[in-house]
Design a protein that fits this description.
The protein has about 425 residues and is an alpha/beta fold. The chain has helices at about 15-20, 30-40, 65-80, 95-110, 120-130, 145-150, 175-180, 220, 225-230, 250-255, 255-260, 275-285, 295-300, 325-335, 415-420; strands at about 45-55, 60, 85-90, 110-115, 135-140, 160-165, 175, 195-205, 210-215, 240, 265-270, 290, 315-320, 340-345, 350-355, 365-370, 375, 390-395, 410, 425-430. Helix content is about 30%, strand content about 20%. A hairpin with a 4-residue loop joins strand 1 and strand 2. Helix 2 (about 30-40) crosses helix 4 and helix 3 (about 65-80) crosses helix 4.
Length: about 425
Amino acid sequence: MIERFTKRSRFTSQQDFIDNFSIDIPDHFNFAYDVVDAWAAEQPDKRALLWIDDKGHERSYTFAEIKDLTDRTASFFSSLGIGRGDMVMLILRRRVEFWLSIIALHKIGAVAIPATHLLTAGDIVYRCNAATIKAIVCVGDSNVLPHVEAAMPDSPSVDTLISVGPEVPEGFHSFADGIASAGEWKRPEPKNDNSDTMLMYFTSGTTGEPKMVAHDFTYPLGHIATGSLWHDLGPDDLHLTIADTGWGKAVWGKLYGQWIAGATVFVYEHEKFTPADMLRMIERHRITTLCAPPTIFRFLIRENMSDYDLSSLRHCTIAGEALNPAVFDAFLKQTGIKLMEGFGQTETTLTIATMPWLEPRPGAMGVPNPCYDVRLLLPDGTPAEDGEQGEIVVKLPEDGSRPAGLFKEYYRDPELTAYATRGGYYHTGDLAW
């Protein structure tokens, strides 16, 4: 699948990567049709998702099944009045319905807004009013439903509530019943434009209310570098990224780049993170690649890892915070695997990384992804020299376009968008040397 969007997917050196990596963006690109449904047409029995929970339930899904279920979900959502451009918030933890819902929303041309299950009623009210959210799809449990219900009197734009069992309160539609009785789905005309908003995240800075980071339909293609290259994925891999679907890291590691590469996404739905459980998952299911923040790896190395058969694991990546060299050394000693760091933001895809052909340096993020023209600038706007600390910025194309993966705008905040993209650069606000 990746060959449809890149001239080459394997490289031998960083210079080879710089010289030869590019992304071909089709007109009217839509990840749901051009990747998910394409896999279903070409290799219908290929496994797409392996879902496990901490209560012993397990379910494997092929691409053909994902296509059928997302068609049904799109038809169900459409029957409730959800259409192109509508804002839909997803509070779904690690339930399979997250994948069905987000792909269905892509098929409709609606805007998916993933959100954490930790939101309070006040958080939900703010998001609903800031984005004029039309519908909420949420897990039907006592940790989420009361907050959603409490938010509704102050959220006038929301006219559709969908519960993913077991509880379906009055005023909510049942997700399971809806897709069971859904009609046939056909791609709407006109097709989405690449510049249409597809995905939006609320992301907090150090001050003020959360910003609304809007991505267009080309965003998934920016994750080719994340999945195929940094995660080093191929069609035979079973990949685990440890992240809840409410955070941006989930689509980095549990959806776009992985399915473009043809890898199987492994999902473990659990109430409480337990390092031993994660190690058992790797052993039992023969997971081949793993991505997690340094905190997770710190917990893993405290276990007696020699008690587990981790021989299937061949490649591990790490991001989200600075990596302590001691964690790198301890994990290498216990597994023989070198942790490969990466950096990016909600506003971007993978921006700086240690790719498989590079020797990792513990505590170093790596080198720039050539999808982005990455530079370091001093406060006066001049380039930082070697050894000098500067702000990580991305040079914007002079024609006004955006590299695949870079956010479209801060929704409904043109002043903040202009400030973040001042001087012909996207300013990350993060410092490096």
